[in-house]
């Protein structure tokens, strides 16, 4: 994947991330996930809160040309507001 990548989603919910990745795959939208390896660092799971939850989340990036389609699809999730190409 060459070109500018933009954030379209961020979550600390390890059960939500596979759903998001599957949706992007199904739509043919290339993506990269940063930080998903950190889910296992602390035994918080999807119930972690506060600063720790914000620091240990995963960020989903897509090429700029796919950002609008990805944002439209992912806006169904409450956490989608923490990402988004419009904020870049």
Describe this structure in words.
The structure is a single chain. With 88 residues, this protein is of the alpha+beta class. The protein has one domain (5-87): UreE, C-terminal domain (Alpha-Beta Plaits). Helices cover 27% and strands 18% of the residues. The protein has three helices and three strands. It has helices at residues 17-26, 50-55, 67-74, and strands spanning 5-11, 32-34, 58-63. The radius of gyration is 13 Å and the shape is globular.
The overall number of domains is 1
The appropriate CATH architecture is: 2-Layer Sandwich
Helix content: 25-40%
- Derived from helix and strand composition plus strand pairing, the structural class reads alpha+beta
Describe the structure concisely for a colleague.
By secondary structure, the protein is an alpha+beta fold. The chain has helices at residues 17-26, 50-55, 67-74; strands at 5-11, 32-34, 58-63.
């Amino acid at each position: 994947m060459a070109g500018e990548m933009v954030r379209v989603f961020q979550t600390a919910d390890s059960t939500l991330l596979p759903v998001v990745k599957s949706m992007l795959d199904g739509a043919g939208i290339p993506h990269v996930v940063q930080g998903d390896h950190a889910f296992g660092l602390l035994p918080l799971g999807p119930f972690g809160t506060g600063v720790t939850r914000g620091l240990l989340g995963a960020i989903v990036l897509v090429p700029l040309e796919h950002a609008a389609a990805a944002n439209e699809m992912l806006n169904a999730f409450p956490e989608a507001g923490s990402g988004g190409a419009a904020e870049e």
